[in-house]
From TrEMBL, chain A:
Keywords: ATP-binding, Nucleotide-binding, Transport. The keyword Nucleotide-binding applies. GO terms for cellular component: plasma membrane. It comes from the Bacteria. Residues 12-259 form the ABC transporter domain. SMART domains: AAA. This is ABC transporter ATP-binding protein. Transmembrane segments: none annotated. It comes from Streptomyces galbus. SUPFAM superfamilies: P-loop containing nucleoside triphosphate hydrolases. GO terms for molecular function: ATP binding; ATP hydrolysis activity.
Automatic annotation (TrEMBL), chain B:
It comes from the Bacteria. One of its GO terms (cellular component) is plasma membrane. The keyword Transmembrane applies. InterPro entries: ABC_transp_permease (IPR001851), LivM-like (IPR043428). It is found in: Cell membrane. Keywords: Cell membrane, Membrane, Transmembrane, Transmembrane helix. Residues 346-379 are annotated as: Disordered. The chain crosses the membrane at residues 31-49, 56-74, 86-105, 112-132, 173-192, 223-247, 259-287, 316-337. This is Branched-chain amino acid ABC transporter permease. It holds the Pfam family BPD_transp_2. It is a multi-pass membrane protein. GO terms for molecular function: branched-chain amino acid transmembrane transporter activity. It comes from Streptomyces galbus.
Automatic annotation (TrEMBL), chain C:
Belongs to the binding-protein-dependent transport system permease family. LivHM subfamily. It is found in: Cell membrane. The chain crosses the membrane at residues 12-29, 34-51, 57-77, 142-161, 190-210, 222-248, 272-292. GO terms for biological process: amino acid transport. It comes from Streptomyces galbus. One of its GO terms (molecular function) is transmembrane transporter activity. It is a multi-pass membrane protein. Keywords: Amino-acid transport, Cell membrane, Membrane, Transmembrane, Transmembrane helix, Transport. Its main location: membrane. The keyword Transmembrane helix applies. One of its GO terms (cellular component) is plasma membrane. This is Branched-chain amino acid ABC transporter permease. It comes from the Bacteria. The keyword Cell membrane applies.
Length: 267, 379, 298
């Protein structure tokens, strides 16, 4: 369907990104690189700047200094919709779905990949109809992939919490992203749902060969999925490395794990 | 593949009914129909902007005026004297262009704030209509040239008799209105169910989600405004044809508020709802005026001594309707009908198709005595 | 020079009156996130009450009753209609449209009662004028400036020094946190509406006073010009609304004053100038002159 999924994704490089809100430094010269096709976890206590970092990556927040590069393409300063079109998709910590069915939400994810404008849609031109059919078929495939196949035509408002989180994941996947940003994808889920989501993330990474940046408080999930981990504390990166290295890092133990490893969301 | 066929079959009875009506109704009812059609076209446009994109506009009357005066000027004298059909098309485009000129504001100011910003359009527009009298005819307005297609005129002349029924301006315009309304219905559905509709819905529900999913927020906001202006332009041009005269005072803030009332009463975000609301808000004062002497508590029009006139009674009713509907039944008439239908379906059991949906459950309180009146002709 | 002073004074008087209405918009907005489109009909109601009561109660008595009654009605509209689902700021857009419904009903009723008449409010200033140096000023204008200054000062003091003002500011900052800290949101809101209603009623007196011919059914529409004023000020800032009102008042007075030089723009261009100013400002700053980025609530 889309040839950019077949090529390996370019590296996502974050270089000295600094963000200030009204005098407060939310991110202080943060740098890390997400290797092509890897899962890179971003962990840290609440308020460490993880979500701010995601907002920079997806263009919702403009950094005061520093740059973000996807391969050779500069992402800094681009509006969110352009960054989306370059293949960076994200989910939100608190669920943000829109009205309508699962299909409607997933088709929103196809927005950047489809073309039908106001005129073509209003007049019901054949190419607009054909495009809609094709993208609907792909959206259905993705729904099956994340386990939402049975709910494809159900209104999102009627779904369970876990299913709605999955809708967000599927919607992001519908963008056929090269880089997928997941903000606490299993927060508030029960054990079975967590396992299922972890499995999906593993599958899409293998099947679609994309890079994943993961913010998550569930350390079990992070240790299982991540190839590399960056630890933030008060907006500063305090450790980098494989899950095992990070787990043993004294700074991390003090700043993060010491204050309670399993505190849940509510950032 | 049977779905489109079933849909067509379901649409057939209401369409046939609408096509047959001019053979049975007299000019009064036909005129209510014409104004309702015009209102429905405009309301569908406003519904797209307010219901789907979540942008409040109180400037709809301005774009109706642009369509009405635009048509008159393109087709008339003083003016360009173009073929009326071309003038109609240009009037719609002109309204769209006017909406586009406002897009630096419409694209950046969101939600209810846009409502305040668009107030300006109505007042400034009204001022221009009064001032530029070489184009607009000033306070007294100007008469509207009839629409002609080839040698056929949507007017009294040349005389036309179809199946024994003389076809005057109302009958002819009825079919024009039906065609324009069908076009509106069809295009609006295409928009709502297609990529633009999804993007606009997303924009309304979460600007953030929409933008990270690739929706260019400012562009779509202005586009929604432009499209809504074009529907308003079409409605205005058709209204001008139905009135045969355009005057500035008609296109005031009250008209904008009427349109807002239509989409709120009908239920935000649906084409059928906007249509139902349009018929309700348009027909109500006209019917109350006509039957004022039979209604309790309503004085006949013309009596000035403190009684509640029919127009006022209608305004009370729909002012209150806005309050009641938003507070008690936020999805309006459309939601009400949907819930009723769902209940009906449950009761009659599965397998029976739901009752055919006419384009809007026209809630005209038709007194039975007049429904069977024979057609009399008042051109 | 005389014309300039003359225009400045009428602009200030007009701005002072707009400020009363605009402050009402801002108070309501801060407390509830609602844009009150019924402000114009509340104003008309206030004026109407003064007009029908002043014969029996005298001007001051009628004004007191009108201010009180209009304030109570505004509070009732908020408490009984808008707050039905609780004081939830997320419902503000819907509640805004509800105020349009309320406005339709109120305006229809008041217009029906007023009809084509011009009602006198029986104010003590009449058509008296005072000479200040080279300019002649209507007493009603001086009164408008003086009374508005006192009332606006009092309202600012309310914001700053009373528990209600504190609660209001807290609620405007963060509704949830305010609720957690024990702010009774529904009461704060209702009082804000009462205050806005009272301010509107007071403004009606000056809008109908000399040199205006009296209260007409369209007087309420003048309140809509306070919208540009409030928007200019960023909608959430009382000081901004005051500044915006003066800008709007002066613009209107000067455009009307120099109308003969601007005759290409047509008669009555002063009445629409505020809207032109609003559009111009929104083009440059979509959140208003004093609106900080993000001050507008989503």
């Amino acid at each position: 369907m889309n040839d950019r999924t077949t090529a390996p994704p370019p590296a996502l490089a974050v270089r000295d990104v600094t963000v200030r809100f009204a005098g407060l430094t939310a991110l202080d010269a943060v740098s890390f690189t997400v290797a092509p096709g890897s899962v890179h976890a971003l962990i840290g206590p609440n308020g460490a700047g993880k979500s701010t970092c995601f907002n920079v990556l997806s263009g919702l927040c403009r950094p005061a200094a520093g740059r973000v590069l996807l391969g050779d393409t500069e992402l800094t300063g681009r509006p969110p919709h352009r960054i989306a079109a370059l293949g960076v998709a994200r989910t939100f910590q608190n669920i943000v779905t829109t009205a309508g069915t699962v299909a409607d939400n997933l088709m929103l994810g196809r927005h950047a990949l489809s073309r039908a404008g106001f005129t073509a849609s209003a007049l019901g031109l054949p190419r607009a109809r054909r495009e809609q059919r094709e993208h609907l078929a792909r959206a259905r495939e993705i729904a099956e992939l994340v386990g939402l196949g049975a709910h494809f035509d159900a209104p999102v408002a009627l779904l369970s919490y876990g299913d709605r989180k999955r809708v967000e994941l599927a919607r992001a996947l519908c963008l056929e992203p090269r880089v997928l940003l997941l903000d606490e994808p299993v927060a508030g889920m029960n054990g079975a749902e967590r396992a299922r989501t972890a499995e999906v993330v593993g599958t899409v990474r293998e099947q679609l060969g994309l890079s994943v940046v993961l913010v998550e408080h569930d350390m079990g999930l992070v240790m299982r999925l991540a190839d590399e981990v960056t630890v933030l504390d008060f907006g500063r990166p305090i450790a980098h490395g494989t899950p095992d290295e990070v787990r043993r890092h004294p700074e991390v133990l003090r700043a993060y794990l010491g204050t309670g490893a399993d505190e849940e969301d509510a950032a | 593949m049977s779905d489109p066929i079933r849909r067509t079959v379901r649409l057939l009875p209401p369409v046939l009914l609408l096509v047959a009506l001019p053979f049975y109704l007299d000019a009064f009812w036909l005129r209510i129909g014409l104004f309702s059609m015009a209102a429905a076209i405009g309301a569908v446009g406003l519904g797209l902007l307010c219901g789907t994109a979540g942008q409040l506009s109180l400037g709809h009357a301005f774009f109706l005026a642009v369509g009405a005066y635009g048509y008159t000027w393109f087709a008339g004298d003083p003016g360009l004297g173009l073929p009326p059909l071309l003038a109609l098309l240009l009037a719609v485009l002109l309204a769209g262009a006017a909406g586009g000129l406002f897009s630096p504001v419409a694209g950046r100011v969101k939600g209810i704030y846009l409502g305040v910003a668009t107030l300006a359009l109505v007042f400034l527009g009204h001022h221009v209509l009064l001032t530029a009298d070489s184009v607009t005819g000033g306070f007294n307005g100007r008469s509207v040239p009839p629409l002609t297609v080839g040698s056929f005129a949507f007017d009294l002349e040349p005389q036309l008799v179809v199946l024994g029924v003389p076809f005057g301006a109302e009958e002819r315009l009825w079919y024009l209105g039906l065609a324009l309304f069908a076009l509106t219905w069809w295009t609006a559905r295409g928009l709502l169910r297609g990529r633009p509709g999804r993007a606009l819905t997303a924009l309304r529900d979460s600007e953030t989600a929409a933008s990270v999913m690739g929706v260019d927020v400012a562009r779509y906001r202005s586009a929604a405004f432009v499209v809504s202006s074009m529907y308003a332009g079409l409605a205005g041009a058709f209204l001008a044809l139905a009135f045969r005269r355009v005057v500035p005072d008609y296109f005031g803030l009250t008209l904008s508020v009427d349109y807002l009332a239509m989409i709120v009463i009908g239920g935000l975000g649906s084409v059928a709802g906007a249509t139902a609301g349009a018929v309700f808000v348009t027909a109500l004062p006209l019917l109350m005026t006509r039957y004022a002497d039979q209604l309790p508590l309503v004085a006949s029009p013309g009596t000035t001594d403190g009684g509640v006139g029919p127009t006022e009674a209608a305004r009370y009713l729909y002012g209150a309707a806005i309050v009641v509907i938003l507070l008690f039944a936020p999805d309006g008439l459309h939601g009400l009908v949907r819930r009723l239908r769902a209940r009906l379906r449950r009761r009659t059991g599965p397998g029976r198709p739901p009752s055919a949906a006419a384009p809007g459950p026209a809630p005209a309180p038709t007194p039975s005595a007049s429904a069977v009146r024979t057609k009399e002709h008042t051109p | 020079m005389t014309a300039f002073l003359d225009n400045t004074l009428s602009g200030l008087a007009l701005g002072a009156v707009y400020a009363l209405v605009a402050l009402g918009f801002v108070v309501i907005f801060k407390a509830s996130g609602v844009l009150n489109f019924a402000q114009g009909s509340l104003l008309l109601l206030g004026g109407y009450l003064v007009a029908v009561l002043h014969d029996d109660l005298g001007f001051a008595g009628a004004l007191a009753v009108a201010v009180l009654a209009t304030g109570l009605l505004a509070g009732a509209v908020d408490r009984l209609l808008l707050q039905r689902g609780g004081p939830d700021p997320a419902a503000a857009p819907v509640q805004t449209i509800v105020t349009i419904g309320v406005d339709i009903v109120l305006v229809t009723e008041l217009s029906r009662r007023i009809g084509g008449d011009l009602l006198s409010l029986g104010d003590p200033w009449g058509d008296a004028v005072t000479e200040i140096g080279p300019v002649t000023v209507a007493d009603s204008r001086i009164a408008a400036i003086a009374v508005s200054a006192v009332v606006i000062g009092a309202v600012f003091a309310l914001f700053r020094f009373t528990p209600w003002g504190l609660s209001l500011r807290a609620a405007a900052e963060d509704t949830e946190a305010a609720a957690l800290m024990g702010v009774r949101l529904s009461r704060v809101r209702m009082l804000a509406w009462c205050l806005a209603g009272a301010l509107a009623a007071l403004a009606a007196v000056f809008l109908a006073a000399f040199p205006a011919p009296g209260l007409e059914r369209t007087t309420g529409q003048i309140a809509l010009k306070a919208f540009p004023a409030a928007i200019l000020g960023g909608m959430a800032s009382p000081a901004g609304a005051l500044a915006g009102s003066l800008v709007i008042g002066l613009t209107e007075a000067f455009v009307a004053g120099y109308q003969s030089d601007l005759h290409v723009l047509g008669e009555g261009v002063g009445d629409v100038a505020p809207y032109a100013v609003m559009i111009a400002v929104l083009l440059v700053r979509p959140t208003g002159l004093f609106g900080a980025k993000g001050a507008v609530r989503v």
